[in-house]
Amino acid sequence: MEKSFVFKFMGLNFDLTGIIGSTLMALTVFFICFWLARKVEMKPNKRQNVFEYLLEFTNGIVKDNVSDVDAQKHLSLYAFVLFLFIWFMNQLGMFLEVKVDDWVFVKSPTADPVATMSFAMMTLLLSFTFGVQRFGVGGYLKNYTQPVGFMLPINLIEEFTNFLTLSLRLYGNIYAGEVLLTLIGNDLAHAGGPFTLILAAPLAMIWQGFSVFIGSIQAYVFVTLSMVYIGKKVTTE
What we know:
Layout (H helix, E strand, L loop, with lengths): L2 E2 L1 E4 L2 E4 H21 L9 H20 L3 H27 L2 E3 L2 E4 L6 H30 L9 H37 L5 H40 L4
Parallel strand pairs: 1-5
Antiparallel strand pairs: 2-3, 4-5
Helix pairs in contact: 1-3, 2-3, 2-6, 3-6, 4-5, 4-6, 5-6
InterPro entries: ATP_syn_F0_a_bact/chloroplast, ATP_synth_F0_asu, ATP_synth_F0_asu_AS, F0_ATP_A_sf
Keywords: ATP synthesis, Cell membrane, CF(0), Hydrogen ion transport, Ion transport, Membrane, Transmembrane, Transmembrane helix, Transport
Subcellular location: Cell membrane; Membrane
């Protein structure tokens, strides 16, 4: 059974597997963005066109789901970085997995619910922050009693369910993809000698391609839902 490498420091548990994967992907996103935008010109080159297309794509997600113009300006960079970071994290385990015996040192960080819950918590905290800035503390809390007072418990439960659905949807899809790829590469490939080994190779390639598509969709869905949740906090019903 695969296990993440966890170590203790000052009484706290640290998941080295998640730390390594997240750090690798953070550096990857940074250097790719730096390379694409290194020479900005009035007449864009191919690298600059790619960078601007990605930025316009995420800006479109923000504008479609957040009506407040001031909030759009603050969320533009967040949506851009969040999309790229999650996209690369989703793909990591499909092409690179480092194992020593049963210990896994590198895999997709988003195949761990702690990572996806951290992203979801960041989104919810941002939504609370923008809501308080827009309406004030009293006005923001009053929104939980809209449209009628007895909706308060339901609206509070909705906050918790938003957190769970946002995080577990991403985790479930990426984790399931890695599990199936492991089954194809390990169990099926070694089940019946050369025949199953030959059969497993194209299946693994097909599944990797499909997983890239799923990982891209899940990154898009996560960012879109994040903007929807934040957009609801800065608008009145």
